[in-house]
Write a structure and sequence with these properties.
The protein has 4 helices and 4 strands. The chain is α+β, with helices and mostly antiparallel strands and 154 residues long. The relative contact order is 0.13. A 4-stranded antiparallel beta sheet has the order 1-2-4-3, covered by helices on one side. The two termini are 52 Å apart.
């Protein structure tokens, strides 16, 4: 018998990652003498990021990761289902930045999943406590008798 968590897969439970580069958003002068040294590359997320994931993508830990990995000038922006990676190049993404971003997104996705699981466990525990309380109230109410001489205390 399978549990609901194994039979239902929401888009939020799928790992967050990056699919492809939006080629149409790249500078038209790439690979010419007029090509910019650094530019913005837009990449498509594998699914729409959740609010908490966006906050982590734009947060201090991601910034620190980029600096630590040697990409201090790279800036990230989330726009709908796109990650805008500013101050970079396709070569830089190919040669390492892409892997750094993939690892950071996987960690962010894992953190979000852990938080959702913890919240679900708390909700289930609260619901179980409420079921137990309701059953105790029903049992106590059922123990009341309105017959003569019944329920006389002591």
């Amino acid at each position: 018998m399978s549990t609901p968590s194994t039979t239902t897969t929401s888009s939020a439970s799928a790992p967050l990652g990056l699919g492809s580069v939006l080629v149409g958003s790249l500078p038209s002068a790439l690979m010419t003498a007029d090509a910019p040294a650094r530019y913005t590359v837009e990449a498509v997320f594998t699914r729409r990021p959740q609010r908490e994931e966006i906050a982590e993508i734009l947060g201090d830990e991601t910034r620190e990761t980029l600096v630590r990995e040697g990409y201090p000038t790279v800036e990230l922006t989330v726009s709908d289902r796109r990650l805008e990676i500013a101050n970079t190049t396709l070569e830089e993404l190919r040669d390492g930045l892409g892997s750094v971003l993939a690892e950071r997104l996987a960690a962010i996705s894992d953190h979000a999943h852990e938080r959702r699981d913890a919240a679900a466990r708390r909700d289930e525990k609260t619901a179980e406590s409420e079921r137990e309380r309701a059953a105790a109230v029903v049992a106590l109410a059922a123990s009341v008798s309105f017959g003569a001489g019944a329920n006389v205390a002591g």
